[in-house]
Amino acid sequence: MKSYREELWFETRSRRELINITPQVAGCLAKSGIREGLCLVNAMHISASVFVNDDESGLHHDFEVWLEGLAPEKPYSRYRHNSGEDNADAHLKRTIMGREVVVAVTGGKLDLGPWEQVFYGEFDGMRRKRVLMKIIGE
Questions:
Q1: pLDDT tens digits, one per residue of 31-70
Q2: For position 119, which CATH number holds?
Q3: Full domain range(s) for residue 120
Q4: Could you tell me the pTM of the whole model?
Q5: What is the mean pLDDT of each successive set of 10 residues along the chain, which is 138 residues long?
Q6: What's the pLDDT at 84?
Q7: Are 19 and 122 in contact (CB under 8 A)?
Q8: Pairing status of strand 37-43 against strand 100-106
Q9: Number of domains in the chain
Q10: Cis ω before 114 (30° cut-off from 0)
Q11: In sequence order, what are the beta bridge partners of 40?
C-alpha cells in the first residue's frame, strides 16, 4: 500500500469564508498516483472545517445564517473562552461543520456524488492556516 501526504494552505480575506477545494484535492490525488483507496482531507486548526456539500451560493448563505444563529460572533462577552481571544464562536462552528472528510478513491478519481464538492470552511480567518491531505491505497 502507498501513502501520500500534502498540505494545502489558506489565508482568507474575511473572518468567515467557504472555499471549494475540490480541484486542489483532485490535484493532490493525481500527484499521488493512487488509483484505489481513501483520501483524508483534514482541517488542522480548531476554528476551521472541512466538509462535503453542494457548491450553491444560496446554500452557502443559508450556512452563514444558520451558523450565526447557533453561535453568533458577537457579543464576544457571551463566551467564557473569549478572555484574551474573540473566536469562541469559530470553535463552535467548526464543531458543527466537522473536522475532516474521507473520500473514496476509485479509478484514480474522487468518488463523490453528483453534486458533492469538498469545502474548506474558515470561521476565524485572515491568517494562514493549513489543511492536511493523506491519501492511502494502491
A1: 999 999 999 999 999 999 999 999 999 999 999 999 999 9
A2: 2.60.120.460
A3: 2-137
A4: 0.96
A5: 98 98 98 98 98 98 98 96 94 98 98 98 97 98
A6: 87
A7: yes
A8: antiparallel
A9: 1
A10: no
A11: 102, 134
